[in-house]
Amino acid sequence: MAERIGVLLGFEDCVIYLLVGDELVQYAAYGVKNTRGREIFEPITVRVDQGVVGRVAVSGKAALINDVRDEPDYIPDQFPGLSELAVPLIFEDRVIGVIDTEASSAFA
Known about the structure:
Blueprint: H1 2-9, E1 13-20, E2 23-30, E3 45-47, H2 51-59, E4 63-65, E5 83-91, E6 94-103
Antiparallel strand pairs: 1-2, 1-6, 2-3, 4-5, 5-6
């Protein structure tokens, strides 16, 4: 799923986080986080009170960041992205995770 989303949207990086308690855990990845088969390279966990993905998990609203250098909540990972799109995964009116994508160029 992470690969299909990344390819479809033209992002070099796509990570699917699932909510476990008050943390978002990386469960699937496409791009630099997935260089060895289906294994996630150096997975990270983000608390829901941290970063763009945490903000999206709490609010249930997508975040589109044109330039992450201007985003104080941005948490850098292995991919040196410039723009970020984070979308909540909602099931039965409850956020269960976040799809987080990044690209090396800004959105037009």
